[in-house]
Amino acid sequence: MRPWFMLSSKENGGNAMNTQSLKANETLIIRLAVGLIFGLGIAWLIKSFDALEGKQIPLWAQVLTSTLILGAFIIWAGAGAMKRLSLAIWSVIALGLIALIAWNRAAHSLDANFNPFFLNLSFLIYPFLFISHELVSSADQAGKPIAPYALYFDEAWKRGVQLVLSGLFTILFWAILFLGAGLLGFIGFHWFKDLLMNAYFAWPVTGLAIAASVNLGDVQPKLMHNFRALVLGVLSWLLPVITVIGLLFAVSLCFSGLEPLWKTKAATASLLAGCVALVLLVNAAYQQGNEERSVHIVLRWSALIACGLLLVFAGLAAWSLWLRIDQYGLTPERTLALVGVTIAMLYGVGYAVAAVMPKDWLALLAPVNIALAFVVALICLCVLTPIADPYRLSASSQAARVDSGKVTPDKFDWRVLRFETGTYGLEELKRLSMSGNTTVKNAAAKALALKDTDRYSPLEGDILETRTPDPKQFIVSYPKGTTPPADFLTQSFSDNERLPDCASSGIKCYSALIDLNHDGVDEFALLENRHITIYIRENRWRLLAERYVSDETAAAFKIGQIGVARPSFDNLTIGNTYRGEIGDIRAKGSD
Known about the structure:
The protein is α+β, with helices and mostly antiparallel strands. The protein has helices spanning about 25-50, 60-80, 85-110, 125-140, 150-185, 190-195, 200-220, 220-235, 240-255, 260-265, 265-285, 295-330, 330-355, 365-385, 390-405, 415-420, 420-430, 440-450, 485-490, 550-560; strands at about 465, 475-480, 495, 510-515, 525-530, 530-535, 540-550, 570-575, 575-580, 585.
């Protein structure tokens, strides 16, 4: 007997209730009921959080809140496409997976600030649920585990457009409600505004609004198809643009080398963003291949070149990330970047092979996309659960660096284990605190004793990444003919001392020496693009102030039109504060 997702309605008698799709009115009722019931449940949970008065939110409440919020979208999307029994089984499975992921996040995180929307390391739940739902929904509609590519394409793009339109509808819906509340408030009636702020009204109404907007997308298929075609048309003609830019970047690297790219400290993230854009735009141009419509020659060649660029970008991202991991080990953020690099490499290899095959234009893109959808869903599931939890992998990686002697305890950043790797990091610290190595044992015990207030404060013995200014980068605008202070050029600046990038690489730093506090010692001002930073000499140079200025002001700085002006009015002191000339009130002694 084949499983439920392989059975077609014809094979089950056609009229059987458990294989029929829901009727239009049944779909609307289910969606509205889910919006109302789930909304009321979320409202009750949110109100119960307020009653805790700052106490820790129970684990079950965190899990249930997130499950209700995301589970509603699964049922809303499936109700318009899946058969009754399939929808019921998939909804239970999806809710269980969401609950598992929410539990894993809440149980192993040390962050006391709860948010139900996975706005943290667990954000991969969104692509996981989207891809998984489309794979299950399309398989159910096709009556076999692997649906035709055309069905995957139609369903995925339809669902994406539907989500965007539902979000816009809900935002406009609430904008109109607040407009009405404002109008009533003008004439002295505030009850409607109070109603909007009530959780028992806001959450159910939001659920009903999203449910109605999702349903409108199903009952207006022509509108959705036309809107999707417009979106795909616009995106497809952005492909030649990004292809040209990508080629310029790749060719330029041949002359500049990779060092300027590594110095940005954002190479991996930027390259992965480029990979995402290339995959999106190649698919917008390819759509369903030659079978759906003829493809312009410009798009054909752009897609072929873009497939090669995708592999280049993915390879550079992998190299950049490996340099950081090899030097500093895994952190949760680097683990997520490693996931992105792995997926990008898979797409890069698959698309490059599709581009060089002598058959029809990108004929292999369809099977590659289907196979990678399953792989990406599996990878995301592993990362979202204890199997490959970023906290667990990072804690093991960092502890291994100490165990192996690759980094000595005095140069190891113990706060990664104490604050950034959740409960797994604490477990590793406890293990290390019982180590036979006395130095490791004492350092781990000291890290365990750190308070939350120590999380971002430099500690004694910290080894911070530093940069020393490059004398060749400076152009002194004022006074003419002077040079930067010698002790500024030899000082090592840590990241939290905010030395502009222009001081060590990139564009030139325009600078000025000027006595701003009339103590006979010049301060040092630096201009990078439109950002001015001012340093004062005490025991060492430290950041005094920073501000963004207009293009005109920046141009005047560069040609040395710089001076000092005393305020027209003295500062007005009020109690323990003073009112500054620019109209702000700050405590005495503040910057």
